[in-house]
Amino acid sequence: MRIIAGTARGRRIFSVSKNLPVKPISDRMKQSLFDILRPRITGAKLLDLFAGTGNVSLEALSRGALKAVMVEKEPACIKNIHRNLVHLGFAERATVLRGDVLKPLDWLLAYSDNDGYDIIFMGPPYRDINNKMLSFSEPSLKNVADARLLAPNGILVIQTHKTEVFTIPPGYEVFRTEKYGDTLVRFIRATKSAPQE
Question: Which end of the chain has fewer CB atoms < 10 Å from its terminal CB, N or C?
Fold first, then answer.
């Protein structure tokens, strides 16, 4: 894995053991994602849930994001993210937190200066270590919505397996979907009628 563009273009991103249920975003998918997000990246506050290797946050920081807050449950992944942040010189613009995205997320609002996040990226694992399919998207989206983590005019991007079926929380809508092999990437925003704070 490498940074595709920005100040750290071409530099290596360290990965984690293949024994962990972490599937880093492919370069093709990452390039497409950031082509879509390009107008929003500079100066953005990014929240990266199920951060894994930190690949998405590291790319965003290279491309001019103001800050990235990464949430990950696995200690080995957290250690690797810190290694990448130091390696790439982004440590001062990032916060790495150990947390379970399947539990209430109200505590994360403070890390956005209580303004919410301009971009929220979620890449829930598709399968566990025994290859059992997981269904983390719906409860994770609900927790984000309940905690009001998305800034006004912000967007949430969720990467899921194409067969996973889930309900979008009330007050939010999918406005774009991209398909990459067995993966769907949905772009979500608050509906016009949803209350903003």
Answer: C
